[in-house]
Amino acid sequence: MPRMNAITERWVRSCMAELLDRTLIWNEAHLLHALREYEQFDNHHRPHRTLEGAAPLRPLPAPIVQPNRLAHLDVRRRDRLSGILHEYHHVA
Q1: Adjacent-strand bridge partners of 80
Q2: Which residues of 32-54 are buried (b: 16+ CB within 10 A; e: fewer)?
Q3: Alpha helix (H) ranges present in the chain?
Q4: Cα separation of 49 and 59, whole Å?
């Protein structure tokens, strides 16, 4: 499956660049925990270019078209894995 090979290589490359190059792994349990967190981050939060900015397991959010809501955006950051990964959310 040549297409699957490219998808796997891209995932491994992004995992290495965004997680493993920035983390000192202590043991196998720590590695599995970090990979599980990164997998959830990648599938539920991180935007993907091929999906028009949506994450694979989350639909694309509705656009903000009201000018008054654009002027008063309240964005909060949530750190994962001790600040290595960052998630940003609009506060309702």
Answers
A1: 85
A2: eebeeebeebbeebbeeeeeeee
A3: 2-18, 28-44, 67-71
A4: 13
| CA-based end-to-end distance of the chain | 43
**Does the pTM exceed 0.70?**
no
Q: Structure tokens of 3?
A: 């297409």
Kindly report, residue by residue over 1-56, the tens digit of the pLDDT. Answer: 777 788 788 889 989 998 899 889 999 999 999 999 988 888 877 766 666 666 67
d(CA 49, CA 1) in angstroms, rounded, equals: 22
Give the C-alpha separation, 72 to 49, whole Å.
27
Cβ atoms of 52 and 60 within 8 Å: the answer is yes
- The structure tokens listed for 44 are 């539920």
